[in-house]
Write the C-alpha cells for this entry.
Amino acid sequence: MLNIVLFGPPGAGKGTQSERLIDKYGLVHLSTGDIFRANIKGETDLGILAKSFMDNGQLVPDEVTINMLKAEVLNHRDPKGFIFDGFPRTNAQAAALDELLSEINTSITSMISLDVQEDELRERLANRAKTSGRPDDANPAVIQNRIDVYKNETAPVIDYYSAQNKWIKIDGLGTIQDITNRLFDAIASL
Ligand code: ADP
C-alpha cells in the first residue's frame, strides 16, 4: 500500500493537491476537515461537537478525531492506499495512526509537507473565504488562531516523522501544477 500523510499549515493546498494524488494513484482520500464538515451539514452529534471547536480555529479533541479516523480507515476493504489530509495534527494522533495501520499490517510510506510562509497563508485563506462558505475562513482572528495552533500543536508532528526518516518537504509556492509535479516527483522517488 501507498500511504501518504499530506501535511502543512491551513491554506497550504493539501485539499487541492490531494485530489491530484488520488486521481493518479487511486488512493482513498481521508480529509478529517471534510468529514467534520459533512457531519456538521448532517447535524450529527459528531458535527455538533466538532463545530464549536472548528468555528474558533481550535482542534477537535484527539480522542474524538482519532476514533472517527479509525472508523473511516476500517471502512475500506482492500484499498490501494490512503492519503491522509489534515490528519495527524498532533503527536498523539500520529502515534494512534501508526498503531492503527500496524493492526491492518501496513504503515505510513511517507509524510510530505507543503512549505508555505505565513503571509501567503493568510492571503490564500482570506481569498478562499470568498467562495468556501467556511466560517473559519471568514474571520481574520480565527485564521490567526488556526495558524498559531498549527505552529504550537501541529508542526511538532514533523519531528515525529523525521525521526522515522519519513519526512519530505516540498515547496508549496508556485502554480497548482508546479506543486503537483513536485509531489509526483517526490512519490516517484520513494
Ligand atoms: P485547514 O487545513 O484549511 O485549516 P481543515 O479542513 O483541514 O482545514 O480543518 C478545518 C478544522 O477542522 C480545523 O481547524 C480543526 O478545527 C478541525 N480538524 C480537522 N482535522 C483535525 C484533526 N486532525 N484534529 C483536530 N481537529 C481537526
Notes: The chain is about 60% helix and 10% strand. The pocket of adenosine-5'-diphosphate is lined by residues 10-11, 32-33, 36, 53-54, 57-60, 65, 86-87, 89, 93, 136, 146 (CB under 6 Å).
